[in-house]
Design brief:
four-stranded antiparallel beta sheet; 412 residues; 3 domains; Alpha-Beta Plaits; 16% strand
């Protein structure tokens, strides 16, 4: 089933709708990406900052002379600042050997905690909404006063921060940049689709049209029709109109050609058409070594008909004579009017003997025929002369000259 083409308006509406859907998908996809990135980056940043602040608070207390057993109240106060968050501190083995472990919790055996004790930050989702950050605290030079066996850069302990996702603060500049990127992506998608659409449905069909016009002008071929590869209604309308124009031009050209080769009065071939036919027959006869003949016919007593009954009757008489000649020759033969009351026949594959028989037949036929024109019954005669290729001439001029001389000998 042939698919009905769409208009440009319908195509543009479809592109806009398609681009909108793509943009929405891009927004959703990038939103998911943004959420993951925020949870991965900004959650870590907030947790790292909170861990550092908590450690600095503990360290400041220790610098003021607080003892290690005073750490618990400090952590408890930190956890009361935001009930949604949970801060905890674990000592490394080196610190535990020197001051004892802070707690006896089995959490020290956790895989993430052990990796953090190795100096690597860890970030893990305990559930869909709860995250935990493991922040390793490293020895600094200022720590060596209390930790004589420590080395700068070694792990003193791990600060953990457990917090809900809802507590993460989004960066306004990142959101703004993300929106700009989404708009840019949407516009890029729209323009890309428009470019592809216009190139496929407008530029390419126009190129095809120009190529077809050049082809027609170069080869003068009005029979090849245009097929434009497009689903746009307006483009298909151009294709249909162009093909209709080609068909009209082809018909007009054929009609003009026919008129240029047809006698305007009698409707049979004119002198030009006769000369073209003889030229073609000369080529064919030379190739197959077959004879052909030409016969000139000149009407007798035609001038008295014109003088007595007028030229209108004379014209109608010429039409009747032409019809009689055409009806009594073969389909392969050609009857033409040279001008005035003179006619000529091209007899294909006809030697001199057969040409003489045709001449005698037509002379008798016309002489015995009564032409009825406008209520008048008219009788005329005809003088004829024939010439045969190749014995009477090698070209049309010689053949016509020989036939014309023979016709005038009969007419005298």
């Amino acid at each position: 089933m042939h698919k009905r083409p769409l208009s440009y308006d319908q195509h543009i509406r479809r592109i806009i709708l398609f681009s909108t859907l793509i943009s929405l998908l891009a927004v959703v996809g990038y939103g998911v990406h943004l959420q993951v990135r925020v949870l991965d980056e900004y959650s870590k940043a907030d947790a790292r900052k909170t861990s550092r602040l908590a450690f600095e608070a503990i360290y400041s207390a220790m610098e003021r002379g607080w003892k290690h057993h005073d750490i618990e109240p400090i952590i408890a106060r930190l956890n009361r600042v935001d009930e949604r968050m949970e801060v905890d501190l674990y000592r490394s083995e080196a610190v535990s050997r020197e001051f004892g472990p802070r707690t006896q919790s089995a959490n020290q055996a956790e895989e993430m905690l052990l990796e953090a004790m190795g100096g690597q930050e860890q970030f893990v989702a305990e559930s869909a909404n709860i995250y935990r950050f493991y922040y390793p605290i490293l020895f600094e030079k200022s720590c060596l006063a209390c930790h004589a066996h420590a080395e700068p850069g070694g792990v003193a302990g791990v600060m953990t921060v457990r917090f809900p996702v809802s507590g993460v603060r989004f960066a306004p500049d990142m959101i703004f940049n993300a929106l700009i990127l989404l708009v840019a992506l949407a516009l890029a998608a729209i323009f890309a689709l428009l470019y592809i659409y216009l190139h496929r449905h407008l530029v390419e069909p126009l190129k095809q049209l120009l190529e077809r016009i050049r082809y027609i002008l170069d080869r003068h071929d009005l029979t090849s029709h245009l097929v434009l590869k497009s689903g746009v209604k307006e483009v298909k309308d151009i294709e249909e109109s162009f093909n209709h124009l080609l068909s009209s031009l082809h018909e007009s050209e054929a009609q003009l050609k026919a008129l240029s080769l047809t006698d305007h009065l009698t409707g049979i071939a004119n002198r030009k058409r006769f000369e073209e036919a003889v030229s073609s027959e000369l080529v064919r006869s030379k190739r197959y070594e077959e004879p052909f003949s030409v016969m000139i016919l000149d009407l007798n007593n035609f001038k008295p008909v014109n003088d007595t009954h007028g030229h209108l009757v004379g014209d109608k008489l010429l039409i009747e004579v032409a019809a009689l000649l055409r009806a009594n020759i073969r389909v392969s033969d050609l009857a033409a009017r040279l001008g005035g009351d003179e006619f000529v026949l091209l007899l294909i594959n006809t030697d001199a003997k057969r040409a003489r028989l045709v001449r005698e037949k037509l002379q008798e036929l016309i002489a015995q025929h009564t032409f009825e024109v406008d209520g008048l019954k008219l009788q005329i005669g005809v003088s004829t002369g024939t010439a045969t290729w190749p014995e009477d001439g090698a070209d049309l001029k010689n053949l016509l000259d020989r036939a014309d001389k023979r016709m005038y000998r009969v007419k005298r």
